[in-house]
Amino acid sequence: GDSVTQMEGPVTLSEEAFLTINCTYTATGYPSLFWYVQYPGEGLQLLLKATKADDKGSNKGFEATYRKETTSFHLEKGSVQVSDSAVYFCVLSGNTPLVFGKGTRLSVIA
Amino acid sequence: EPEVTQTPSHQVTQMGQEVILRCVPISNHLYFYWYRQILGQKVEFLVSFYNNEISEKSEIFDDQFSVERPDGSNFTLKIRSTKLEDSAMYFCASSEAISQRVSYEQYFGPGTRLTVT
Q: Rounded CA gap, A78 and A61, in Å?
């Protein structure tokens, strides 16, 4: 069945550091890919999405490119802020309901 | 901005008791979902609901679970006889439409933390 594997956390970075959170997937058909974020005490929010190969999703300085050849959707941000501290989920939507990765906790320190 | 709301935020119950988790989806959305996240594990799909019936459910969604849309706004998840392993965060979500080729965003509520003692 469909599955998502994302890098284990927690990840701790200093403010303005570069962020990469790796995500790879296994799916049949043509899945859409998402990154959801969960800030402390809040629900899951869509951060960005890509619906087909080579699409780049972007939002709030975060980017991820849908790479079919490597079945990846890595999340990147050039300069993280303390306010980016949250749990990030790589998510797949194919012929089944949303399939979540385990989540990666990011802590950004000033 | 419209949002999905869930009540209560935290529910503590004794093993064997029935609980009802409540959700108010976004008003023009047609599809509704429940997911759960056991502490330290993945968010898992439980059930989807459309046009007043279950459209899909996972292996987790066994006979102890049921869902209902009792009126035009609420969407509920009932667990009939809770077990210790039902302790988890339960998320409700809603979306406008779904398609195999175009995925519409699912909007999530803040979750209800269920603790079974």
A: 7
